């Protein structure tokens, strides 16, 4: 299943979810590819990978290198298609191309059959790279932080999903919402979680990702939390989330 992680609002834990969900799914024995489409390349560096433009997704998108040659096998059981800062200029480059919204889909399509899960980490924007990611995906995961203004901007994202579904990718659907930065001791955190569940009945995953120091430290060590702090609460939360994601993917496949 091809799943895009999207939220145009920065700081919601989107890349944290992308990296650690990918690692937790791989730990469960699934073949996983993480695609980093964000020019900031945080998903790549969060797995300890830094590459030049010629070894990144950018090189495949502009047709310089076959995408298969750019895959990086990480020590964590998953493959990565890394990003680089050159993707920041891609928006202007792609505007001139025919069917520019489907560039990522065409680039990635030779890889899809190799993996159980392809997770596409999108930039925190609603630009051409994000639209490309939505066109290439089957489902969308929206990470949402358990903080004030959590729902701010969500209606804009939902409208974008609707537009993409109507005009570019008829099969796109909301796979689920993941609540992040949850602190059960904090009343506001609990209230936001309840409000989101009321708004999006049946769509929100049961598992919530806690706010922990170890989770915020892990990217600077280039490791997913399941390796950096394998017995900690965040690692266990991602393992339970991975199980939920697998079960939901199975249900979608059976019903579709």
Describe this entry's structure for a reader.
45% of the residues are buried. Helices cover 40% and strands 13% of the residues. The protein has a seven-stranded mixed beta sheet, with helices on both faces. Helix 1 (14-27) crosses helix 11. The mean pLDDT is 93. The chain starts with a strand and ends with a helix. A hairpin with a 5-residue loop joins strand 3 (72-73) and strand 4. The chain has helices at residues 14-27, 42-46, 57-61, 90-94, 103-108, 128-136, 154-167, 187-199, 213-217, 225-228, 233-255; strands spanning 2-5, 32-36, 72-73, 79-81, 117-121, 139-145, 173-180. The chain is α/β, with parallel strands linked by helices and 256 residues long. The protein contains eleven helices and seven strands. It has a single domain (2-255), classed as Rossmann fold (3-Layer(aba) Sandwich). Residues 2-172 form the AAA domain. This is ParA family protein.
- Just name the CATH architecture: 3-Layer(aba) Sandwich
Q: Level of helix content? A: 40-55%
Q: Could you tell me the mean pLDDT?
A: 93
H and E order? EHEHHEEHHEHEHEHHHH
The CATH class label is Alpha Beta
The description of the largest β-sheet is: 7 strands, mixed
Spatial ordering of strands, largest sheet: 3-4-2-5-1-6-7
Percent of sequence in beta strands: 5-15%
Going by CATH, what is the homologous superfamily? P-loop containing nucleotide triphosphate hydrolases
Rg, rounded, reads 17 Å
Query: What's the CATH topology label?
Result: Rossmann fold
Q: How many beta-strand runs? A: 7
Tell me the span between the first and last alpha carbons: 12 Å
Low-confidence stretches: none
Count of discrete alpha- or pi-helical segments spanning 4 or more residues: 11
Structural class from helices and strands? alpha/beta
Count of discrete structural domains: 1
Molecular shape: globular
InterPro entries: AAA_dom, DNA_Partitioning_ATPase, P-loop_NTPase
Organism: Thermosulfurimonas marina
Pfam family, one: AAA_31
Protein name: ParA family protein
């Amino acid at each position: 299943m091809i799943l895009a992680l999207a939220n145009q609002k920065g700081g919601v834990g989107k890349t944290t979810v992308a990296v650690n969900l990918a690692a937790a799914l791989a730990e469960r024995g699934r073949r996983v590819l993480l695609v980093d489409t964000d020019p900031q390349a945080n998903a790549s560096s969060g797995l300890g990978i830094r590459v030049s433009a010629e070894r990144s997704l950018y090189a495949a998108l502009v047709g310089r290198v076959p995408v298969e040659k750019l895959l990086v096998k990480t020590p964590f059981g998953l493959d990565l298609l890394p990003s680089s800062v050159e993707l920041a200029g891609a928006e202007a480059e792609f505007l001139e191309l025919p069917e520019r919204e489907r560039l990522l889909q065409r680039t990635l399509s030779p890889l899809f059959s190799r993996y159980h899960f392809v997770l596409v980490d999108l930039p925190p924007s609603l630009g051409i790279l994000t639209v490309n990611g939505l066109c290439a995906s089957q489902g969308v995961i929206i990470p949402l932080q358990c903080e004030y203004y959590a729902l701010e901007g969500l209606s804009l994202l939902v409208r974008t999903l609707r537009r993409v579904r109507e005009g570019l990718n008829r099969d796109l659907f909301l796979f689920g919402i993941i609540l992040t930065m949850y602190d059960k001791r904090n009343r506001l955190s609990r209230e936001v979680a309840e409000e989101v569940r009321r708004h999006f009945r049946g769509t929100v995953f049961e598992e919530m990702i806690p706010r922990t120091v170890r989770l915020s430290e892990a990217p600077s060590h280039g490791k997913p939390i399941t390796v950096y702090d394998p017995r900690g609460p965040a690692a266990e939360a991602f393992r339970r989330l991975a199980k939920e994601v697998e079960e939901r993917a199975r249900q979608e496949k059976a019903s579709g």
